[in-house]
Write a structure and sequence with these properties.
heterotrimer; A alpha/beta (119); B alpha/beta (289); C alpha/beta (288); A: 119 residues; alpha/beta; Nucleotidyltransferase, domain 5; 6-stranded mixed beta sheet; 3 helices; C: 288 residues; Alpha-Beta Plaits; 2 domains; elongated
Chain lengths: 119, 289, 288
């Protein structure tokens, strides 16, 4: 099995669905095996409606899903800190890509990876 | 007696009126405490110019494992309503600014490993201004949650106040939880308002707050000659006594701008404050003004 | 799209009336957002019809199953907000104090405390003569956490994008705490409205500290400057020394509050209008 990647989507869908630029307040997370492109699961983002800490809440969901990397348009400062500390990679995808396109670009090394800082 | 000086809207003259009242009473040899609870933008010190007796850093509680390795049950993360704690590989990640210090994670930890430690968020200043007891709270820039600090300064300033002491709390504007923290403890809420539609709109919210808390309320109308009659009609309809009306006075605005006590520069303003002070004291004694 | 937020550390400096004036002075349609949800007043000056009204949910409140509660008081001991006192052998939740933290439910031996969504306020979309406007009203004693502010800002941007409007102006919340952060984060320009008093200057400094903290471009306009020209000059000097911009001075005029009482913007007073036009030109220049 390859690396597990979470891709943000505005609503439930598949690899042809457009990614959600937001991480913390993304609609759902599509969990995909980066090697086989197999969809492992779709997880609703319960943090969408959080009054506080949507970013850290979504990071907790990522930790629970045991993913190695996340693809989103952007990461808020708290999400960035949380994912850094959890050792989960963050990849920035430009707006307008489908989940599949973003995944392919990540695998091909064409997305920007956010540096993980030590806190 | 504890009086909270509040307003739905900012800039109505809360600090002007609360510092003036406190000064007037203190100069009349009453035991008075002035509390600046507007911790995001504290200004009372500019006018009362206190000699600082003590400055104390204020802390809130946050959870910590104190370096211990836990079994990562994840109960702390699961229970936290504020997404402030993550359980990760035998340790926890705490997001200080999100934490409400509620202690739920500590209670939920099955191993009992989580402890609490203090985190500084602001300063509480205690001082003296010519015989007037002075307290103020200042939130550190970049901090988000002001309510615990406001509760902290209110508690520090009132815990040893006996019944005869007059405590004037300069509350933050608005009616959210931070304003509530400064009004909750009051025996009497003095609403500072103005006769504009803004003032009227926000007064409705402030009246609801006082009502929800079941507090006795009174009002003072500042800049009373500028605007309409909507505010007065509203107060009358809700049977809230108007203890004084303070007309706009350029001398007051200029004096205030220069951090002087406007009572010294405008005798009209000074007599309005005297009238207001008398009204408040009669209300406190249960006599209608 | 460019985003401007109009703020003031201190309340009552003229932030809201300036926001309304800027909307009228801008060329072309503007998307307006009232992020001062604790005292949402922009709608009093920007007339129009609300075409969307929806409840705004944030946080949770405890609910006790009265049939199961034995009144043991464990919850009362655990609660740090004194929000769940036991009265007559029954735990009773005070919604004004409850923060929905769930500490009570951890210790409840009867497992009889649940949490339900809390309606924290209402969100509105309005059509005004200068373009769309989003405004929200927070209920009493609600946690002004910034979620409603974030929602107002997001909705405003969304509508602006749908309609190809390239300027959004936000009326920011007062202060420097939670609600201010989502209102100012990532904007193109923060316009701080202040007044020439020691408290105005004091609060402005804290506001500029916040802008530095978030690495934001800021511009300062002094309202009612003629109440103290000396303090105005001090403020302008301080602003320049800190590397922020000054965007004009606006005179005090008793006609302004009277205009506001008639729900008109300060632009109806000629001298004030001239000053605000200059301020707006300076702001536009900074945006370019």
């Amino acid at each position: 099995m390859g690396k597990l990647v979470a891709i943000t989507l505005e609503h439930a869908g598949d690899l042809d669905t457009l990614i959600d630029p937001r991480f913390g307040r993304a609609g759902v997370f599509l969990i995909v095996d980066a090697e086989t492109r197999e969809i492992i699961s779709t997880i609703d983002n319960e943090s969408v409606e959080a009054a506080h800490g949507a970013g850290t809440g979504a990071a907790a969901t990522m930790s629970g899903a045991n993913v190695d990397a996340v693809i989103a348009g952007r990461f808020g400062p708290k999400a960035y800190e949380a994912l850094s500390r959890l050792g989960i990679q963050m990849w920035n995808a430009p707006q307008g890509l489908t989940a599949g396109q973003a995944l392919d670009k990540m695998v091909a090394g064409q997305l920007t990876q956010m540096q993980i800082v030590k806190y | 007696m504890i009086i909270s000086v509040a307003s739905g809207k900012g800039g109505t003259g809360k600090t002007l009126i609360s510092t003036s009242l406190a000064r007037l009473w203190a100069d009349g040899n009453k035991a008075v405490t002035y509390v600046d609870a507007d911790a995001e933008e504290p200004n009372g010190h500019l006018f009362l110019k206190p000699d600082v007796i003590e400055e104390k850093r204020f802390t809130v509680k946050i959870p910590t494992l104190e370096g211990r390795t836990c079994a990562a049950h994840g109960k702390c993360q699961e229970i936290c309503a504020f997404n402030a704690i993550l359980s990760a590989k035998g340790s926890v990640i705490v997001f200080d600014e999100l934490c409400h210090g509620c202690g739920a994670c500590v209670l939920a930890c099955p191993e009992g490993f989580l402890q609490e430690t203090g985190r500084e968020i602001g300063t509480i200043t205690h001082g003296d201004s010519n015989g007037l007891e002075f307290y103020s709270a200042t939130l550190d820039v970049g901090e988000a949650r002001v309510t615990p600090l406001i509760s902290g300064v209110v508690e520090a300033s009132t815990e040893n106040a006996d019944g005869d002491r007059l405590v004037v709390i300069d509350a933050p504007p608005g009616t959210s939880c931070s304003a509530m923290a400064a009004v909750e403890i009051a025996d009497l809420v003095l609403l500072v308002t103005e006769p504009t539609p803004f003032g009227e709109h926000d007064l409705i919210l402030a009246l609801e707050m006082g009502k929800a808390l079941g507090r006795k309320m009174a009002a003072v109308i500042n800049r009373s000659d500028i605007g309409g009659d909507g505010t007065r009609a509203l107060l009358e309809a809700r049977s809230i006594p108007v203890l004084a009306e303070i007309p706009f006075d350029r001398a007051v605005a200029e004096s205030y701008a220069a951090s002087r006590m406007p009572m010294e520069d405008s005798s009209e303003f000074a007599s309005s404050i005297v009238k207001l002070a008398q009204g408040l004291l009669s209300l406190a004694q249960g006599v209608s003004p | 799209m460019k985003e401007i937020v109009v703020v003031s550390g201190k309340g009552g400096t003229g932030k809201t009336s300036f926001t309304a004036a800027f909307a009228h002075l801008a060329k072309g349609p503007v998307a307006l957002g009232d992020c001062d949800v604790d005292a949402a007043n922009l709608a009093l000056l920007m007339h129009g019809e609300d075409f969307v009204e929806e409840p705004f949910l944030a946080g949770k409140r405890a609910r006790v199953d009265e049939n199961k509660c034995t009144g043991c008081g464990e919850c009362e001991n655990a609660c740090r907000y004194e929000a769940i006192p036991v009265i007559d052998n029954l735990a009773r939740v005070n919604d004004l104090l409850c923060e929905g933290c769930r500490a009570c439910s951890v210790v409840c031996p009867e497992d009889c405390i649940t949490f339900m969504n809390n309606r924290a306020g209402t969100l509105f979309h309005r059509e005004t003569s200068t373009g769309p406007m989003v405004h929200g009203a927070l209920g009493i004693a609600q946690d002004n956490s910034g979620k409603l502010v974030a929602k107002v800002r997001a909705d405003t941007k969304l509508i602006a994008m749908e309609r190809n409007i390239d300027l959004a102006i936000f009326d920011g919340p007062p202060g420097i705490g939670c609600p201010v952060h989502p209102a100012v984060g990532g904007v193109d320009l923060v316009v701080a409205v202040t007044e020439p008093s020691s408290s105005g200057a004091h609060d402005l400094k804290r506001m500029l500290d916040l802008c530095d903290h978030f690495k934001l471009e800021s511009a300062v306009v002094v309202n009612k400057y003629d109440l103290s020209v000396a303090v105005t000059e001090e403020i302008e000097e301080m602003v320049k020394n800190r590397g922020a911009h000054t965007v004009g001075r606006v005179p005090f005029d008793e006609g302004v509050p009277r205009a506001l009482a008639r729900r008109e913007t300060p632009l109806v007073i000629p001298e004030v209008k001239t000053a605000l036009e200059k301020t707006w030109r300076d702001i536009v220049r900074l945006l370019e």
